């Protein structure tokens, strides 16, 4: 179930990825903002207050795993679902992402796979906040 107020933050150092995802999620009724690295991502979380974050793992300045760990250790942000995406098939990175994030999807991104994942995590995230 999609509510108009659902906000998604996309954190990726590839502008084409942000543009592709923003276009598709906006068509589905989501409000979307983008950030180019983990540092910008944290700043956006503090100003945009997203309901869900989609973040690349490998980025300059601050990678997605470090960004996620910072957010998950913050009282206000720890319940925001975070889905990692990455072009790498490196098992270590996938395991690290799984330990800190809520889900993982590899590039190239299939929006038909990502959308139900996002919807599921939004519902689960709302349940966590309501039950906390």
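-> sequence recovered:
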């Amino acid at each position: 179930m999609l509510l108009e107020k659902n906000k998604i933050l996309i954190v990726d150092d590839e502008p084409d990825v942000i543009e592709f995802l923003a276009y598709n999620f906006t068509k589905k009724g989501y409000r979307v903002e983008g950030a180019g690295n983990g540092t910008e991502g944290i700043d956006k979380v503090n100003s945009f207050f997203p309901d869900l974050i989609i973040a690349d793992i490998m980025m300059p300045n601050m990678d997605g795993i470090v960004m996620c760990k910072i957010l998950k250790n913050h009282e206000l942000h720890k319940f925001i679902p975070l889905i990692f995406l990455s072009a790498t098939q490196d098992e270590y990175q996938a395991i690290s992402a799984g330990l800190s994030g809520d889900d993982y999807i590899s590039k190239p991104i299939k929006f038909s796979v990502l959308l139900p994942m996002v919807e599921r995590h939004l519902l689960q995230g709302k349940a966590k906040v309501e039950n906390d």
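The CA atoms of residues 65 and 99 lie 9 Å apart.
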